[in-house]
């Protein structure tokens, strides 16, 4: 069980956050789009910290779970907390895949594939535009004004 509040944003919070998103962020986060491969800002990020939901700030993945999948998108083998991710069956484009969304706000993150490294064997293939990043030692975002229970990215280990 997570220590983070997973209640969704209020309608007013959702409107305010959406108003501050760039067009590409809206397309990916809210319309389940995909950014172009090998273009995302976090693809080659090797800093220590925590990747968060770009929309609501919920911690999603630790940098220690990131790996180079060669696919062109940031990939992780394990979420920050399983409760922070929700999986949805995706049958778009004639494929059967598992879509990943933020468990708190429902924003589209990417897809999960069963071809990742140990220990999980999963590849969480994410859009950089769906993510924020907090370096170790910096405060976790509190986009919804609820208080970040663990304080900083490095204390969130």
From TrEMBL:
GO cellular component: cytoplasm
GO molecular function annotations of the record: metal ion binding; peptide-methionine (R)-S-oxide reductase activity
Catalyzed reactions per annotation: L-methionyl-[protein] + [thioredoxin]-disulfide + H2O = L-methionyl-(R)-S-oxide-[protein] + [thioredoxin]-dithiol
Domain MsrB residue range list: 14-136
Keyword Ribosomal protein: no
Pfam families hit by this protein: SelR
Enzyme Commission number(s): 1.8.4.12
Cofactor: Zn(2+)
One annotated GO biological process: protein repair
Assigned keywords, A-Z: Metal-binding, Oxidoreductase, Zinc
Enzyme class: oxidoreductase
Recorded family membership: Belongs to the MsrB Met sulfoxide reductase family.
PANTHER family to which the protein is assigned, alphabetical: METHIONINE SULFOXIDE REDUCTASE (PTHR10173), METHIONINE-R-SULFOXIDE REDUCTASE B1 (PTHR10173:SF52)
Protein name: Peptide methionine sulfoxide reductase MsrB
